[in-house]
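Honest question from a wet-lab person: if I give you the sequences of every part of a complex, can you actually get the arrangement of the whole thing, not just the pieces? Trying it with mine:
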Amino acid sequence: MEVTNKYIVIKHHIEDSPKESHFEVKTEAIGLSLKPGSDEVIIKNLYISIDPYLINRMKSYSASHNAISFATPLTPGQAIDALVIGRVVTSGNAKFEKDDLVMGVFTWAEYSVVKEQSIIKKLESFEFPLTYHLGILGFSGLSAYGGFFEICKPRKGETVFVSAASGSVGNIVGQYAKLLGCYVVGCAGSQKKVTLLKEELGFDDAFNYKEETDLNSTLKRYFPDGIDIYFDNVGGEMLEAAVANMKAFGRVSVCGVISEYTDIGKRASPNMMDVVYKRITIRGFLAADYMNVFGDFSAKTLDYLRNGQLRVIEDRSLGVESIPSAFVGLFNGDNVGKKVVVLADE
Amino acid sequence: MEVTNKYIVIKHHIEDSPKESHFEVKTEAIGLSLKPGSDEVIIKNLYISIDPYLINRMKSYSASHNAISFATPLTPGQAIDALVIGRVVTSGNAKFEKDDLVMGVFTWAEYSVVKEQSIIKKLESFEFPLTYHLGILGFSGLSAYGGFFEICKPRKGETVFVSAASGSVGNIVGQYAKLLGCYVVGCAGSQKKVTLLKEELGFDDAFNYKEETDLNSTLKRYFPDGIDIYFDNVGGEMLEAAVANMKAFGRVSVCGVISEYTDIGKRASPNMMDVVYKRITIRGFLAADYMNVFGDFSAKTLDYLRNGQLRVIEDRSLGVESIPSAFVGLFNGDNVGKKVVVLADE
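Yes, you can. This is the full assembly:
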């Protein structure tokens, strides 16, 4: 049997803000049976995680390209690999059977043909939507957990500022911080998001950064005694303002710098005098660094979910053709919470 | 008995590069006897430590002013407090006697009249010059020790880059790193300093940053496999280039940012993408944070000195009138090693 497989490619490298016109939907015919002796696995993709860091792989050059294996540059015209949950259609590998649910590094496509090493793990149906494995119980949650607990070593009562606080990672950081007993303020890019943070996610306060003219004063207003912990998702001016408002021995956990991904003119120039005199620590991280605490993270987070102590915010789009707009939307603040593209029902 | 006491003041706040004309030598008559019941101590100053961080106290506004007690702003026309070694002339305090050698926070002056809390400790003559207490066995050494060992957690064989490497702290960091078995490259601002680093202090390599046009490429040349540890004394472009050349899990210890003290236009904009993807830690510190390891630092450093494993580089000027030029010279790269002004013989 043969099917038409739609997949998404970049037409060329993307050097600044991504636009839908930079992408193309391609089609190919693929057979759903494997040649004898093949060890490949054919997967029908169900849920695709849409993540901003991919923009760095779409550039012709980025400091990130040589840093780690999964940050290698993408090739225009070629399928784009990403975190995906799918169902096995055909397997040439004894470890996987038809109808297994699997999560792995597959492609922005309806079907992916992969080797065993691309499959991270098999999944079972459970009481929550499977997409939680892409977000709150996956790398978004692990980023929040590792970046907040492991890097910042937060203590009850400390003041925590989260940027892009309604985003896939930020909203979880803020909720973890509240559960620990911190005072938490988030910023986001619309009044609707601010309301979500304050009224549904339990943030102590929140503001729309687009309505502020002097971020330094803004943060002074929300943190008159200073910030102990800044969880940075955006870089740029917000990072500068946060550093200026840190307390002594403050910690900045740098998860991402989305404002700098598409405009190096926005690169932050934090005042290093503050860094010295206030003994600030600024530290970058990747979720993958915290696989050693995945068990703890997963157990605690599942407990919180089962106890109704964590709200899960997902933002879903439908169909492979929606991937470019879903991705581009990340840079325009369109998404609320974890962005997932749904390709098919389980 | 009365003496004429010369002391140095700033005429006004200094907002950019300091010049000798910003300072003034003032005189006052002081009595060398104390009124009955006074608990003061009159000290004849012998050696004055000349430190760049004072520039931040000379500004009308600096991020450092509110950070810690000893960074308070200086008042034009008033005596300038600084780390000094002196000899007690008259004491109204039972803990101190005439002729005691003491180190403390006194003034840029020939004589200081102080209270007990300004005296850090009594000193004994020992086999090394007393000025070592201001440099290698004092805050310069402790800065090097705390900032290198405690912040960077260096391991044998790691690559270490030190800026302002012939300065009071940098030269000690480089020597500690060599004693640990690291590969060490320093930068400085003259060929003479470069020769000192390579031929007398045992650095593996060194370069004159003034002769380099592209610091990023320069560091790539000296560290083809990247930098594990950057000990930053200067900030600015050098910090940017170092971050671009760090290895994964690199550590940046920020001791000072002298290029940014007098020109905020030079503020560093390190690429935060590097910070994230290479999981770099950038951390500021003050020597005072490491008083808890002073015993270890002092014992180890004395051992190294007694074994002839550490070279001590001091740069001395003579007389109270030389203080302004000694201080201004720090910002022009005039000093080699620890800058001390000698006021009188022991």
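Two things worth pointing out. Chain B has a mean pLDDT of 95. The radius of gyration of chain B is 21 Å.
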